[in-house]
């Protein structure tokens, strides 16, 4: 007996495997009911989950719906995440059988957040945020494509939706529920659609229906169980079901709710009522067998595969999806997927690997869109999870394959996170335009794939803002507000942009944007902070302080808020001690990006210098320089503080050492020259610095303009002449001529113009320089001279008219 058991088990498993193949003609169902939503700002429903369970119970009952248990996917509340729903729909496509009904039941909220014709309606998943539905909720377009795919396989799709409930949603102001219901009514293919109510109605639910159900669901299930069989022929056609549900629901809701059934011939028999108990016994036994498929298949797998399966489940539960490499869920998944003995479980393995990957990404996006302080802080410090999200999405896409309908959305999110990470990393490094442009490429790709995701446009705006494209930034932020009118962040970003452009001219409009942001999200600390900064630069210091303190009360650990409040206090000589204490607290936390931490040290050093505490000022300013060597302010402030303390000699030593350690940076040369404007040690060191020609030219040019802006013209001329390293230094020659003309040195300027035109006369730059000499404001006075006209006539072929 013992020896025969494995053989019997093997035969039983093969039989089960055959039962689960789509070759067997059987109906299938995905049943979704969400009463409890993750976002607390979305109104929970009372009985949507119970309605879904009742519908699933009916379908799986061997005497009623007669849908085998392994052909029903039930998702309620926290199990009904967007990833889980999309995975269930993908599964339904694989098991859909020709000439059999494929049920899709969805009880949740339906909404559209913006009144734009291009926007699809959305059915909210458990983890959908209060706004930004695109890619984060199930769109009606996605649903229609799924139903079309089922029809193409010869199945009969039966869509049941109960999605027009009362509650506070993003689209209330634009009739979002009504628009979604209208879209759901629009039948696309050969399918049956059953909706709980008309677009202008609400779906009623309460304890009077089955002890706690929705009126529509209660009578739909009752009718399918047999109550709709008017002629008692043990068959329920669409006419009978429609008439029964409409009459009962309308009567029980005082004619305030009228379900709608569309599609299919009215005499189409949807359901056959059972004749006796024998069929019930057979179906129940089949369900019991199929429910044990997983255990049966695993029982015959090799021991190592069984252990890997346990490890796989543990890794998924622990969130170890891709890391650590050898003990990650993905590693175990790949082993199990390649095991021949587990062939029957491959679909289940795919589902259990992809859903957690996509759920993790969704959770981070939802928290960000809600402006959760911890999530925003995690973003700014580039938490490790953000770096791994593109890998999560790529792994999910690799498992699902290129033809899966989820792929465009997954690829859009992958490009979004790649661009986001690159932008955040570039921010931490002080900003490099080439890196921002690479990030912009990723975000453009994401937006092309999914043009109605508001957070794509918001991130595009942040990149345009950093690249100086103010018009493009405004357009991107404004587009985000159109797509997600109740999302606060893009309104705040519009206020920031207008403040940067011109805080006085744009004060009123910027203030309105900040006010809109805080109205939509009263606990959005960053909006209060930026509104406070707008008031500060506009001279409204008292009001600014109130808003900054309000921001700090909302988010006491935010170092940016504390920095801005400390900066404000540091502008008042009577409150320097308080400002210093705040800066010290921020520095102690040491959680900021280097450039932001450098600002804290700089401001602390500035205040110490004002108080005459030169030793403390020097310490703070040196730390600011170490953290952000590119910021010129700390170098200048340190020189001024040391000179004011009669420590010019120490300053000379410091900047001389700086030239030695960083000969490719301008700060040492510049401040060594400014310590003694009569000395030429800086110039000697610049001439003898061992630097590539291109670096030396760039450095001399930067120094020249720095001297010019600080009013030291002789040093500026010396540096700009040094930038002319050879006969091909066209730009350096032009810069010198512009400087000389702008400072009124006409004779020298004319010689420099002659030199520039002569050297470039046989090159591609001649036309460019001719145009600039004819139009640039720096040459306005020089253009009036006879010598200039003769030069330009000789080299440019025409004499520009004097201004």
From TrEMBL:
SUPFAM superfamilies in alphabetical order: Caspase-like, TPR-like
Signal peptide: 1-17
Matching PROSITE patterns: EF_HAND_1, TPR
Key words of the record: Signal, TPR repeat
Positions of TPR repeats: 525-558, 598-631
Record bears the keyword Cytoplasm: no
Chain coiled-coil ranges: none
Keyword Ribonucleoprotein: no
Record-linked InterPro entries: Caspase-like_dom_sf, EF_Hand_1_Ca_BS, Pept_C14_caspase, TMTC_O-mannosyltransferase, TPR-like_helical_dom_sf, TPR_rpt
SMART domains: TPR (SM00028)
Pfam families: Peptidase_C14 (PF00656), TPR_16 (PF13432), TPR_19 (PF14559), TPR_8 (PF13181)
Domain annotation Peptidase C14 caspase: ranges: 29-262
Cited PANTHER family: PROTEIN O-MANNOSYL-TRANSFERASE TMTC2
Name of this protein: Peptidase C14 caspase domain-containing protein
The organism of origin for this protein: Neolewinella maritima
